[in-house]
Design brief:
The chain is globular, with a radius of gyration of 17 Å. Helices cover 63% and strands 0% of the residues. By secondary structure, the protein is an all-alpha fold.
C-alpha cells in the first residue's frame, strides 16, 4: 500500500463529511425544517423522519469530518442516501434536472462505502478499525 494512502482516505473523509454537513444544513437554512417536514409528508413518509434525517446528516457529517468512527458512520448513513436515490429515481440521471436526478445520491453511497472500506485515514481523532486493520493484505499473484 502506498504511504500516501492514509492521506487519500483523509481527503475522501473530508469531502464526504463536508457533503453530509452541507446536505443537512441545506434542509435547515434553505428549505427550512418545516419545509423539509412537509416534503417528507408529501412523499408519503412520516414528517418526524425529517428531523432524524437532518440530525443524522449534520451529526454524521461532523463525526466523519473529525474522524470519530467515520467508517461506521458512513455505513449508518447509507440508508439515508438510499432513500434520496429512491426519491430522485424517477427524475432521470442528472441531479441538476428538475427535482434532481439519482446519480448524486448513488455516487455518495459509493463514496460512503469506499470510506467504510478504507477507514478514516490520517488525522482522525478516533479511527474505527477492523481487528486486522494493521495487518498487510497479501500481494496479488
Amino acid at each position: 500500500m502506498s504511504p500516501l494512502a492514509p492521506y487519500g482516505a483523509l481527503l475522501l473523509r473530508l469531502a464526504l463529511g463536508t457533503m453530509w454537513l452541507a446536505h443537512g444544513l441545506l434542509k435547515v437554512f434553505v428549505f427550512g425544517i418545516a419545509g423539509t417536514v412537509g416534503f417528507f409528508e408529501q412523499l408519503g413518509l412520516p414528517g418526524p423522519l425529517a428531523y432524524l434525517v437532518i440530525l443524522a446528516e449534520i451529526g454524521g457529517g461532523l463525526l466523519i469530518l473529525l474522524g470519530l468512527h467515520g467508517r461506521f458512520v458512513s455505513l449508518a448513513l447509507t440508508p439515508v442516501m438510499l432513500g434520496a436515490a429512491w426519491v430522485h429515481a424517477g427524475n432521470g440521471w442528472v441531479f441538476s434536472a428538475p427535482n434532481g436526478g439519482w446519480e448524486y445520491p448513488v455516487f455518495l453511497i459509493a463514496a460512503g462505502l469506499a470510506h467504510a472500506l478504507l477507514g478514516d485515514g490520517a488525522l482522525a481523532l478516533r479511527s474505527s478499525r477492523a481487528p486486522d486493520a494493521g495487518r498487510a493484505l497479501p500481494a496479488a499473484a
